[in-house]
Amino acid sequence: MKLSDNYMPPYQYNGARSMIIMHDRYLREFLSVWYDARAEKLVLPNSDDYAYESLEKLLQHVLGAARGYMIWMCEKLRLPDPEINSVPQLDHIAEDAPAWLDHLVQQWRTPLAKVPEDAFGVEYESRWRVKYCIDAMLEHAVMHPIRHTFQLRHLMKRD
Q1: For the range 6-9, what are the long-range contacts, defined as Cβ-Cβ under 8 Å and sequence gap of 24 or more?
Q2: Residue 45: what are its φ and ψ, rounded to 5°?
Q3: I want to staple 37 with a disulfide (CB 3.0 to 4.6 A). Which of 41, 42, 101, 138 is the partner?
Q4: Contact at 8 Å (CB) between 115 and 78?
Q5: What's the confidence (pLDDT) of residue 8?
Q6: 3-class DSSP state for residue 69?
């Protein structure tokens, strides 16, 4: 289930609505490229970062971040919990990722719809101690899968 203009509710701030649609698009693109990397048996370069220990951990990282961004925004804006399920376990993540991504997209659709535009400019400290306004966190959420898609394509020599 992809988000589209017909599927999205009206938003008080259309910039947020647009970012949520882009987030869906680029997460799906990442997942497609991730499956390509998996089919090629791509081995990630050595890194001290847990997320780069395997392709499965990288997928779990990207999906978990997508979950975390919306939870963080809802917490900061004092909105209800978006009720996004935990990311699939590593031993089933490749098989479960498409259905889980559909769930994530569904849960991302509405939490920010009634938030007024001026609330998107208020800054809060992120979990990694950098200050972000909600608008910037949405942009960060969109760029995160783009960045990892680029990395995988580069490692597969497709950039």
Answers
A1: 7/109, 8/109, 9/109, 9/110, 9/113
A2: -65, 155
A3: 42
A4: no
A5: 83
A6: helix
Distances from the Cα of 2 to the Cα of 32, 67, 86, 114, 141, angstroms: 14, 17, 20, 21, 17
- In whole angstroms, give the CA distance from residue 35 to residue 101: 14
pTM of the complete model: 0.93
- The dihedral built from the CA positions of residue 129, 131, 137 and 143, taken in this order, carries a sign that is negative
Task: Give the chain's domains with CATH numbers.
Answer: 14-155 (1.20.120)
Over the stretch 105-151, which tens digit does the pLDDT of each residue have? 999 999 999 999 999 999 999 999 999 999 999 999 999 999 999 99
pLDDT reported for residue 158 = 75
pLDDT of residue 4: 52
What residues form DSSP beta bridges with 109? none
Q: Which of 33, 30, 5 is nearest to 142 (CA)?
A: 30
Collapsed DSSP state (helix, strand, coil) of residue 118: helix
Instruction: Compute the distance between CA of residue 154 and CA of residue 157 in angstroms, rounded to an integer.
Output: 5
Query: Which position has the token pair 């990722």?
Result: 97
